[in-house]
Amino acid sequence: MRAADPAAGPRAGRDVYRDLLVELMAADDRLVCLDTDTGLFSGVDFGSAADRYVNLGIAEQNLMGVAAGLARSGRIPMVNTMATFASTRALEAVKVDIAFNDLPVRIVATHGGLAAGHLGPTHHALEDVAIMRTLPNMTVVVPADADACARLFRQSLELPGPVYLRLGRAATPDVAATPGADAPGTRLGRARYLRTGGDIVLAACGPYPVLAALGAADELARRGVRATVLDVHTVRPLDVETIDAAVRATGRPAVVTVEEHWPSGGLGSAVAEALTERRPTRVLRVAVPDGFVAVAGDQRYLLERAGVTAAAVVDRAVAALR
Predict the structure, then answer these.
(1) At a CB cut-off of 8 Å and minimum separation 6, what does 19 contact?
(2) Is the pLDDT of residue 4 over 90?
(3) Burial status of residue 4 (CB atoms within 10 A of its CB: 0-12, 13-18, 19 or more)
(4) Is the peptide bond before 237 cis (omega within 30 degrees of 0)?
């Protein structure tokens, strides 16, 4: 895979995924691309793999059934739709056809969180991580940037069961780790250290939440507080060992989680469930408040309005340190 070019500027994870998929399909005839009129593949030249691109139209339940049949026949289908439709409209088919049979279907869900904010609450996906991580056999991945998207997608092809890959819509900056902090690099199933510090742990998933956690870490540093920042891109299976070790290293049983999701069932819930089985741990969550976002607007505007910001993370971290 080509290394990211820092001079290229922000990139959209869905675009990087699309280009990588076209490249991989040319080399592996097991791969099939199933589309639902997303527009993501408009004008794409699949070359010799053109007969393995199928646009099923806006029919998400049918999409999942077709994907299951292809997977049972030895193919590895990539199903492409918006996150809210993958996790709610098509949920029964995902549960019964794909997860129950533990089939190697890759559900590539774009417009996660508030990425489709301009279309209003019917297109927001603030429950999808909660839904997908409850399904047996499902791996749930929320990359923080385009480079992580490409790496994690490629690694996911080695898994025998289904994967839910949650992507946004807009281009976002690449996430940079402090040199030496992330020795393993971006690995499926392993939380990635972006910063290391001895006072508080900030755990985030997804582009804007991870950027908010990094911004909060910078502000906390100016106040003399050293924060560890973890990119928890794999929400299921959760890397409990790394998160627990990071919390124990601070000597303080507390962690702040950051996500573009409702508070119930997402990353914060997953971290709380896992850590409290080991020892009492305070989990303070920064998430979209528990209510419908009943306005249309740009994703970043809606996140600011919802309080998923670096300032909110700083406030929660300070509260945890009291």
Answers:
(1) none
(2) no
(3) middle
(4) yes
40 with 14: CB under 8 angstroms?
yes
Identify whether the C-beta of residue 103 lies closer than 8 Å to the C-beta of residue 275. Answer: no
Neighbours of 197 (CB within 10 A): 20
Is the separation of the CB atoms in 164 and 188 below 8 Å? Answer: no
User: What span, in angstroms and rounded, lies between the C-alpha atoms of 235 and 246?
Assistant: 16
- pLDDT, residue 77, reads 98
Report the distance separating Cα 91 and Cα 290, nearest Å.
21
pLDDT digits (tens, 9 = 90+) for 10-53: 999 999 999 999 999 999 999 999 999 999 999 999 999 999 99
> What's the half-sphere exposure (Cβ side, CA atoms, 13 Å) at 237?
12
Answer whether residue 3 shows pLDDT above 50: no
